[in-house]
Design goal:
This protein has 107 residues and is an alpha+beta fold. Helices cover 41% and strands 10% of the residues.
């Protein structure tokens, strides 16, 4: 019988959170691919640059979420097949999605 011992895969953390894929259970998210999308976004700087270029006409006194965070949520969702925004109401409670959007609290 083959004894498979896969090493954990570590991802860049956020806000003191350690992120690794180790396939042993625990707090589980089925959307681990969002971390790969996040890493590519960090490499190419897409949401950061879009956040700088797009005009934000919202009232600054009423803003809870930065434009860059909203762009991450929407673009990462599209990349993973969540075309409808109603999916994000549930996804905002997922620790992996919070980490991908670099939010320590729910979106």
């Amino acid at each position: 019988m083959i004894d498979c011992n896969s090493l954990p895969i570590e991802f860049p953390g956020f806000g003191g959170r350690k992120i690794e894929a180790d396939f042993s259970g625990g707090q589980v998210s089925s959307d681990g691919g969002v971390l790969l999308v996040r890493q590519v976004d960090r490499w190419i700087g897409l949401t950061k640059r879009l956040g700088e270029l797009l005009p934000d006409q919202r009232d600054p006194d009423r803003i809870t979420h930065r434009l860059e965070t909203l762009l991450k949520q929407r673009l990462y969702g599209l990349a993973l097949g969540y075309e409808d925004l109603n999916d994000h109401d549930a996804l905002r409670h997922d620790l992996v999605w919070q980490t991908a959007a670099e939010r320590a609290t729910k979106l």
